[in-house]
Specification:
Blueprint lengths: L27 H8 L6 H14 L16 H12 L7 H8 L3 H12 L3 H18 L4 H7 L5 H12 L3 H5 L4
């Protein structure tokens, strides 16, 4: 479950200059739900908020961004892979599908996204994988859904881009 809470800066004693993702397990999730009640009297609200500040722990969050190319052919390829990151067609096969050579598509991805096609696809796949992993889906299932033939290949790509394994990133033995 994901909860989003906006706390006016003047009421928050924490020195966070931008939105922060926090761990909502344990007491924090139910406490936020408690604070969402309109009928809390001011004293109840102050006591609950005082506990809230003590139990909020920032999460390490990684964002992956694969910019979209501008050229229509490369963009169609990119949008198709975003819709189905498990599509394993080669750049040659994509070229036939969008009306460009593999070499042209390769040049377009490098020029318009700042990364080669393989790196762009890897980041797109990992971006699609993060919410699945966060929801508790097993690594092997996520790996297959985003186009990796083996769990070990997926874990290696995850480690290369994010710097750790999925299990360590999400803090559990997946």
């Amino acid at each position: 479950m994901m909860l989003s809470v906006y706390i006016p800066p003047g009421r928050c004693p924490l020195d966070w200059s931008e939105p922060v993702a926090v761990e909502a397990s344990g007491l924090l999730g139910p406490l936020v739900c408690h604070l969402a009640q309109d009928q809390l009297d001011p004293r109840q609200r102050r006591r609950a908020e005082a506990v809230l500040w003590d139990v909020m722990t920032p999460l390490s969050v990684t964002t992956l961004s694969a910019p979209l190319p501008i050229d229509d052919r490369a963009r169609r390829l990119a949008e198709a892979l975003i819709a189905d990151p498990g599509d394993n067609r080669s750049l040659d096969e994509w070229g036939h599908a969008v009306g460009a050579s593999a070499r042209t598509l390769s040049r377009l991805f490098t020029k318009e996204t700042g990364m080669g096609f393989d790196q762009w696809r890897r980041i797109t796949r990992l971006s699609a994988a993060l919410p699945m992993l966060a929801s508790g889906m097993p690594v092997a299932g996520v790996a297959r859904r985003v186009g990796y033939d083996t769990q070990s290949a997926f874990v290696a790509a995850f480690r290369r881009e994010i710097g750790t394994t999925p299990a360590r990133y999400f803090g559990s033995p997946r």
